[in-house]
Amino acid sequence: MTQLAIEDFLRQKIGLDALTVGSNTIARCTNKRMADCGIADINLYLLKLQESPRELEELIEAVVIPETWFFRDREPFVFLSNYVVSEWLPKNPGKILRVLSLPCSTGEEPYSIAISLLDAGLNPQNFIIDAADISKVAIAKALRGVYGKNSFRDRNLDFRDRYFTSQGDLYLLHDLVRSKVNFIQGNILDRYFLTERNPYDAIFCRNVLIYFDSAGREQTILLLDKLLKQQGILFLGHSETGQKLPPQFVSVRHSLAFAYRKAEIPDSPQGLVKKDTAKTYSSVFVRETKRTDSRENSGSYKSSNSYSKSFTARARSTDIAGGPQSLTNRAAAPTAADKGSEKGDLETAQLLADRGQLQEAAKLCETYLSQNRTNADAYVLLGQVYQATGDRFRAEDCFQKATYLKPNHYQGLIHLALLREERGDISGATIIRQRIQRMTK
Question: Is the domain of 19 the same as that of 168?
Answer without folding.
Answer: no
